[in-house]
Amino acid sequence: MWFRNARVFRFTKPVDISAEQLEQALAADAFKPCGPQETVRHGWVPPLGKHSEQLVHSANGYHLITLRKEEKLLPGSVVKELVDEKVEAIEAEQHRKLRRAEKDEIKEQVMLEMLPQAFSKNRRSYAYLAPKDGVMVVDAGSAKQADELASALRKSIGSLPVRPPAVTQAPALTLTGWLDESIDVPASLTLGDECELKAPGEDGGVVRCKGLDLQGDEIRSHLDAGMQATRLALTWEDSVSFVLDEELGIRRLKFGDTLQEKLDDVDADDAAARFDASFSLMTLELARLIPGLLVALGGEDRSAIVDGDRSERPAPVAAADVEAEVAMDSTQPPW
Predict the structure, then answer these.
(1) Where are the domains positioned within the chain?
(2) 140 in the Ramachandran plot: left (φ > 0), alpha (ψ -120 to 50) or beta?
(3) Within 10 Å of residue 217's Cβ, how many Cβ atoms?
(4) How far is 78 from 125, CA to CA, in rounded Å?
(5) What whole-number distance in Å separates Cα of residue 326 and Cα of residue 322?
(6) Phi first, then psi: what are they for 148, rounded to 5°?
(7) 147-206: pLDDT as tens digits
(8) Cα–Cα dist 142/6, whole Å
(9) At CB < 8 A and 24+ separation, what contacts does 74-77 make?
(10) What is the pTM of this model?
(11) Residue 29: which of 160, 149, 163, 162 has the closest Cα?
């Protein structure tokens, strides 16, 4: 149970939901296969698959959930061929050209007839809620996939006050500063060998670099020409490597050997135990990485977040203040 990506959502106000409450809420929207005339369906499934019937897997206050999406695949070329055949037959019979609306009706009819025999594509999206940390983390490679899970969860539990975290400075400016050395790279981070640079403007060019010295002359020449870093490979505390983008999306997560060694101590024959152990290890590591990364990016802007019972909006949190807070809490486990 290692996430490959991490899309972080920040709770904008405290959320107190137990595993039992979440289980009950998800049960009403448990996954059911597509009906004969349905093209897509979402529903909740057990994170442990065949090893459990529970829709929520909890460990140390973190609640893991899984959304399954079934989508019927209808090859566009096949649909078009059948539609064209029907259109030609009707036009020949009626001696007239069909209107666009009539062709659309024929296409819809053809798709309905094909659906029962269509292949199904299934995808599982994982996420965990960390109420005490004030975040939800989704294993999604795109913002669209993460938003899809968040929308499904909001429908199931009735309310989900979340938004992507905000930082006090645009992430692209910070990533660019790390590359051109106008901003010091924090000691907790090490630059990798991969980045994406983009020129300003909607039609600006894009340069993707891999296997290069990111602070070398070749990269510097692009930065001097006005390009900004929109994606950057990083390693955090020599324990987690990933690619960070300008939307704070964390891709291609790879956890270090230390975590794998800890997992190797678990009984290899007990799949459920290994799943639980890997989930606990991963969430512990991400509970350190996420706030640390927000600090490195200049500090989190919490102006739209309500803490506790306070209704007023707190001022943005400066990086130095966040570092002090993290340091004070570093002796306590994240749960």
Answers:
(1) 7-72+120-163, 76-116
(2) beta
(3) 8
(4) 30
(5) 6
(6) -65, -45
(7) 999 999 999 999 999 999 999 999 999 999 999 999 999 999 999 999 999 998 777 789
(8) 10
(9) 74/39, 74/111, 74/114, 74/115, 74/118
(10) 0.80
(11) 149
